[in-house]
Amino acid sequence: MDRLLESDSGRVLVARHGRARAKEALREAAARWRAGGSSGAGATELIVAAASRALDARPPAGPRRVINATGVLLHTNLGRAPLADEAIAAAGRAAGFSTLEYDLAAGTRGRRGDHVRPLLLALFASGRDDVDALVVTNAAAALLLALDTLANGKRVAVSRGELVAIGGDFRVPSILAKSGASLHEVGTTNRTTPRDYEEALDAGASAILKVRPSNYRIVGFTEEVDLRALAALAHGRGALVIYDAGAGAPARFAEPALADEPVPIEALDAGADLVCFSGDKVLGGPQAGILLGKKDLVARASANPLARALRPDKLVLGALAATLDLHLSGRRLEIPFHRMIAAPLAELARRAEALAAAARAAGLTAVAVESVATAGGGAGAESTLPSKAVALSHPARSADGLAAALRAGEPPVIARIEEGRVLLDLRSVAESEDEEVVRVLEALES
Does residue 431 contact residue 351 with C-beta atoms inside 8 Å? Predict the structure, then answer.
C-alpha cells in the first residue's frame, strides 16, 4: 500500500482526493486486481488507474438531483418543493458573509427574523397591526414552540380524530408530550362535539389544539367542531386555541387546485390565537415552519429559549424571503410548484407524445396516456390534477426492473408503477428536463 501511495500517480490521487479516501480506493482496487488473477509488470499503474476511475465515479456528497416523474408535485422523499431560481440565488447570496444579523445603516447587530417577517405579514396579514409572525425550521417545530410557550405543564384538549401521524416522524401526541403539555383526549375518532371540549375545559385544559389532518379524511358518520365555535368555548373559559393548519394560503389566493387549503388570517379571524403552517406547502418555498398569530403570543414564542434552537439558518431565510417576494410581486408562476400546477394539459399532451416517440426509438414500448397528478406533501392532498404521462414497458424487463434502471440513470429518473406499467407523469417534470429523460431512456439499451 505504501508503494502505491508513494508512486507518482498515487501522489496525484492523494492530492486530488485526500490520503484516507485514496488509500481506501487503492485497497479495493488492489483486491479486485488480485481476485482477477492479474500479475506482472505495471500492476501499480493499473491499480492506481482503477482507484482513480472509482473515485471519479463517486456521486457528489449530499442529496443528488433527480427528475421527479411521479406526478406528485410536492414529493416528501424527493425534497418537497423545488426552489425558484430567485430563491436559489438568494440562498447563494446568503451562503457567504451576509447581513443575516447585521444592520448596515446603523452598523450594529440586527435580527435575522427581519429578513422574512415583513414579507410574511404583507402576504398573510396585510394591514393588521394585531398580528405578528415568526419563522422556525418546519411546521412541526412551529407547533412544538407554540405548545411549549403556551401550555408547558398544562393540559391541552385534542380531538381523538386529530391525533394524527403524518409521514415518518410527525405524531401529534409525541410533539405534544415533548412540549411539556399534557394530552387531554376528547371525543371519538369520528365524532367530537362541543360538549366534549366543554368537559375538557371544565376539567382544567388551558388550551385547545385543532389539527388539520392534511393527508387523510374520515368520512361517513362524522362530526367535528369548527374553529369559530371552538374559540367561543375556549375564550369563554380563559383558554387559548392553537390551530395546526399544515399548509397556509394567502388571502384571495387564486389557485383552483389549492382552493381548499387553510387561510391563516381567516383562522385567526375565526378565533384561533396562533396558527402553525409550512413554508413549502402552498407557498412552494424551502422547508420552514411559520407561526402567525396575536402579537403578544408571538412575542412570547420569540422570547422562548426553544425558539433559538429551532431558528432557521441563513440559506432557508434567503430562499424563503425570495419566495415570499415572488408571491408579493405577482410572479407566482416563477415558482416551480405553481408552474407545475398551472401547466396546460394540451402542452403536457404534446410533450408526452414527443417523449413516447423518443422512447420507442430507443427500443421501448411507449404510449402517451391520461394520468392524474397530485399536489402532495400534505398540501391539496385530496386535490387531483389531470395530467399526461408516458407509459413504458420493455420486453426484457419487468416494471420493477425498468423503474430500477431509470433510477440508475444520470440523472436518476423517479417514475411510478401503475397497473404493471412504468409511468412518467410530465406534470412534475420540467420541460427543460425532457431531453435528459430521453438520454436516460436511450442509455437503457447501450
Answer: yes
The position carrying cell 426552489 is: 83
* pLDDT score of 321 more than 70: yes
pLDDT grade for 98, boundaries at 50, 70 and 90: very high
Q: What CA–CA distance (Å, rounded) separates 298 from 291? A: 7
Domain 67-79+339-443 has CATH 3.90.1150.180: yes
Mean pLDDT of 133-149: 96
Q: What is the residue extent of each domain of the chain?
A: 2-56, 67-79+339-443, 85-332
3-state secondary structure 91-157: HHHHHCCCCCCEECCCCEECCHHHHCHHHHHHHHCCCCCCEEEEEECCHHHHHHHHHHHHHCCCEEE
End-to-end CA distance of the chain: 36
Q: How far apart are the C-alpha atoms of 327 and 119, rounded to whole Å? A: 10
8 Å CB contact between 319 and 87? yes
Write down the pLDDT at residue 277: 94
Write the CA distances from 123 to 128, 140, 200, 290, 370, integer angstroms.
11, 22, 36, 13, 36
pLDDT at 323 over 80: yes
CATH T-level assignment (fold) for domain 85-332: Aspartate Aminotransferase; domain 2 (3.40.640)
pLDDT in tens, 274-315: 999 999 989 999 999 999 999 999 999 999 999 999 999 999
Strand order from edge to edge, sheet including 421-425: 365-374, 384-393, 421-425, 416-418
